[in-house]
């Protein structure tokens, strides 16, 4: 059986210009990054902004497990299926972070015969967007320490600087650091640390900005810390928004590539969904909605994280809504949610599958609570038995959920035709989209609404530090914003070991952060961290390259 990278390397790619012409784009509309990658000029917007929007399909999933779900694979395969049906289709995905690529998750370009290509480029440095985020973030960090070194005119309290540095790798040794050591010439010693780049507020801003002016305005609003008088200090106070925005001159432009079946794909922006808002850029989405009949996009991890944030944050800022939502599930993952160890997932176990179905049912209920039509995509694995697939389909039908068995991993777009037909029917159903909470409600009320409605929690415990920060942010006027929950992706609860559909639990909010530039409040729960660590056997150990530049082991 060929690996994903071997399948991708054998792809019959078209020059990206040929792919872009499917969307009506011309040579003058593209900025080429080699033969198979390009950025779309921002000038295109002036030509397409008055067109009606196409249909928007959001792909999400059950809570992820080591067994795999295949959300990106399904997104790509569904896009290829619509393409086969003659629909003018574009896919919109996030850019992979180098941290997971060299850590545990591997690449993020789909799998099997449902991938975006060039896979190696997308998974490694691509067009440099994530590097632009890293550079802008660390430039601001340097500006802060330089300001303090040269007299601290703003009166920044170095004990209350909330802005760390970032690197796009998993490096636990950098979570907590001391900087400024070595004497007067090296600055003021203070505690600090590093987050992973995809958790940077600059990444969130890139993904939520609607144009360069909006991006600059959001950067100006970033709060980097507080003065000795307890007043917030922003980028506007430091007067460097122009320089920081200049670093995004190219990064803000959507990247266009293709699938194995030459369907156009935007791959742009890459915030994690467990510690950030988990959606690709508004720029890519708004361009896709104007250029195509159907835009297929995804949100990170399970629907309790990525989809909730897509709907409550991204849709709120962008002003659009999905016409249908696809929830991806696998027999293997549901058996794991039903209590089966990973090594036994290849064995038929109908009882465990039925127990694990509770996780899927809760996700279906959640999407319906937003007023949106749902289609369940069962991503088929070779180890699935007919009895298991039949049980899963029948149980979905029993609760009134439309369901399709998808074989896009093995068959590409052909394996997603049934799913595409059912999604088309769902897009014509009544759509009563609504948010889970009123953005003007108090911070605690919004967090409780998410915890109770989406997670099924009994309530929320706020640490003393979190409660104090909420009071301070409310007094400063930062409370009328959406909430970005930072929570483990593996469970509805904040305990990664509680699989399935846990009950009788509370969510503990240990810390609250303001992301005034992004425009939301971040609530950190449980043991969630904004700088991941590497596993005992990182994926980096199996990735290699030969003298001809051919990469192996990249998922």
Report on this model:
With 555 residues, the protein is of the alpha/beta class. 35% of the residues lie in helices and 20% in strands. The chain starts with a helix and ends with a strand.
Secondary structure category: alpha/beta
Structure summary, number of beta strands? 25
- What portion of residues is helical? 25-40%
List the total number of helices: 20
Task: Give me the Rg, rounded.
Answer: 23 Å
Beta-strand residue fraction: 15-25%
Mean pLDDT: 95
| Biggest sheet character | 12 strands, mixed
Low-confidence stretches: none
CA distance, first residue to last residue: 13 Å
Shape: globular
Characteristic key phrases:
four-stranded mixed β-sheet, 20 helices, twelve-stranded mixed β-sheet, 20% strand, alpha/beta, 555 residues, 25 strands, globular
